[in-house]
Design a protein that fits this description.
Length: 99
């Protein structure tokens, strides 16, 4: 889809910090962090932002519905109904925090 400027949200603060850091990671997940950083160079601008798990229902909905061992799924304009409902709850919670 040729997205060039993206923000990736995650609920693991330590992973987001590792991905945003310019220093070399020496943790057990260092190979994964390195792979992600290598893929990230394909974007003009990419950032990794931490969000509270409670504010990230959308990701959890997708993870529950579509396991890694199943066939890949792609959505262009529509998302599964449960995921859309979770996104609306996330949006509502985000707006209530900003008020």
């Amino acid at each position: 889809m040729r997205f060039l400027n993206v923000t990736i949200e995650g609920d693991s603060l330590s992973v987001c910090k590792k991905l945003n850091s310019s220093s070399q990671d020496r943790s057990l997940i260092a190979p994964i962090i390195s792979d992600i950083k290598e893929l990230a160079v394909g974007f003009w601008d990419i950032s990794f932002a931490w969000v509270r798990r409670e504010a990230n229902r959308t990701a959890h909905s997708l993870a529950r519905e579509y396991r890694a061992d199943s066939a890949p799924y792609y959505w262009i304009e529509e998302v599964p109904p449960r995921t859309a409902a979770a996104a609306e709850l996330d949006k509502r919670d985000l707006l209530s925090v900003r008020v």
